[in-house]
Design a protein that fits this description.
The protein is mostly beta strands. The chain has 1 helix and 7 strands. The strands form 2 sheets. The protein has a 4-stranded antiparallel beta sheet with strand order 3-2-5-6, with no helix packed on it. Strands 4-1-7 form a 3-stranded mixed beta sheet, with no helix packed on it. A hairpin with a 4-residue loop joins strand 5 and strand 6. The longest helix has 15 residues.
Length: 109
Amino acid sequence: MKGLLAVALAAVMLTGCGPRQVDVKTAPAQATGISVHVMNRTNEAANIYINSGGNDIFIGQALANSNADLPVNGVAAGTSVTLRANTNSGLRYSKPNVMLSGTVHYEIP
């Protein structure tokens, strides 16, 4: 009985370790050629969002007193959006009716 169990276990292990067909795909290209150049003039980091169709899309963070070039993915060129910046202390800034095209400049505050 133990011998039969050992043979069955070995058969299961060998079939489980056999070759398998794998289908490998790459992610679709997301680059749109649109970016937001953020000039953060506050003394703290700010999270930058694009509001499109009522949805906030996080695009990156701009460190305190610095500039950042943040790529925009998932929003088509020519779309009118609102740019938003939220600091860690809770300050909120926004720039409505921005037409996305090329590089958009956004200075806070």
